[in-house]
Description:
alpha/beta, Rossmann fold, 11 helices, globular
Amino acid sequence: MAHTIKMDMAGSTCPISVGILGASGYTGAELIRLVHNHSEMEIKFVTADRHSGQTIATVFPHLAHLPLPDLISLDEMDVDKVDAIFCALPHGTTQRVISSIFRNYPEKKIVDLSADFRLRDIDVYAKWYGHSHQAPDLQGEAVYGLTEIYRASIRNARLCANPGCYTTTVELSLIPLLEEGLIAKDDIIIDAKSGVSGAGRSEKQANLHTEVSEGTHAYGIGAHRHAPEIDQELSRAANSQVLVSFTPHLIPMNRGILATTYVRVTGKATEKDLRACLRNRYAEEPFVHVLQDGAPSTRDVRGSNQCLMSVSNDRLPGRAIIVSVTDNLVKGAAGQALQNMNLMCDVPETMGLDQLTLFP
């Protein structure tokens, strides 16, 4: 059943009360920023175990002026206070926490921003994340939260597995083409680049300014955890197994994802056919747009919930090049999470997400 906005005694609408778990990370900050501008949501608690007892102003000075509760530990949260929860905790931890919440509060709505419920096969999860799945019963009901593809299922879900940032950027550009049989499923090469915020806010040597600035590097070569997630969704679209060649790179910028994908067209299809397919599929979508000319840049989506994409001819016959971009913290994380929660709570899907791109 879809959640209905509560009514007070006078008949006016009351906010949907939400909690944010793991609020001290970059994604947590984006969730606070977006929910603050949501006319039907109110933040009741924010958790961050390492910063428990501190104010939001201490952790995020740019949010200091907002009337927010102090950060608390997971043990201190009162789930009774909220209708819905955004979970931005690390993988592994998330499975245990969400299982506990549903055990005591089965009616709550949860959008999980970790990877814990994205992979439908729990054996695949164990292989890529190094431990067995801690909530296999919930995995069976979790709905993959690529909004534009699974909108109908998300509306009726109580647990939504928000996709990864790389995967969102890539899948939106490829799923329609595979469904229509316009590209070969066995010849997909993805070269993707991410801003440093994609690595999280925890202190790591690899994220130090001197390690990241004035250069770029590939990582997770042939073994990045988003690869099986991409394979899973593209295989569903193609109705047969798809294995992609996927290499991510770290770029010295704060936010943004740019994926350059090389594909082989099928039959007599041209780049115009690919572009027309994508434009037709997303013609009515508020957050996905296909450019007619040129290629998008990460600066074109910074701070917004938009995904922009383009299709160009490759100089090699029978091949095309697709460029797609998102803000990894918005459409790649918090923005898509809010988009999904809007559906689950039966409010307009775009609510709280109408901010335009910050440019320059």
